[in-house]
Amino acid sequence: MRTATSLITLGFTIYKFFQLESARVTPRPDRVIGPREFAFLMIVIGIVSLLLATLEHRRDLKELRAQYPGSDRTLAGIMAGLVSVLGFVALIAVLFRQ
């Protein structure tokens, strides 16, 4: 979850940094991938890694509950949901802002 959060926030930070930088300097049109696309990829990778980690966590919890039936619930699912909302907000901001 920490890695996914880091990827999402780093992607959004890169986008905002280069958005501010492009206001000062003329962007180069000869780039294969620009800062916006790179930020988009970072955010998408963060969201996908969060989804995969959540699925793996649920599978592990299922196995633990089979061995230890009285185990407590965790807040990891709620936190993953909140972080994924953060990721989708950042993704929408990158997609729809010029």
Which blocks of ≥5 consecutive residues have pLDDT under 50?
A: none
- Rounded to the nearest angstrom, the radius of gyration is 18 Å
Strand element count: 0
Mean pLDDT: 83
Helix count equals: 3
The major beta sheet can be summarized as: none
- Beta strand %: under 5%
Question: What is the CA-CA span between the terminal residues?
Answer: 29 Å
Please state the structural category.
mainly alpha
Order of helices and strands: HHH
Using the alpha-carbon principal axes, give the shape.
Answer: elongated
The amount of helix comes to over 70%
Please describe what this structure looks like.
- With 98 residues, the chain is mainly α.
- It is 79% helix and 0% strand.
- The protein has helices spanning 2-24, 35-67, 76-96.
- Helix 1 (2-24) runs antiparallel to helix 2 (35-67) and helix 1 packs parallel to helix 3.
Key terms:
mainly alpha, 98 residues, 3 helices
Short description:
Helix content is 79%, strand content 0%. It is an all-alpha fold and 98 residues long. The mean pLDDT is 83.
Task: Give the helices and strands, then pairings.
Blueprint: H1 2-24, H2 35-67, H3 76-96
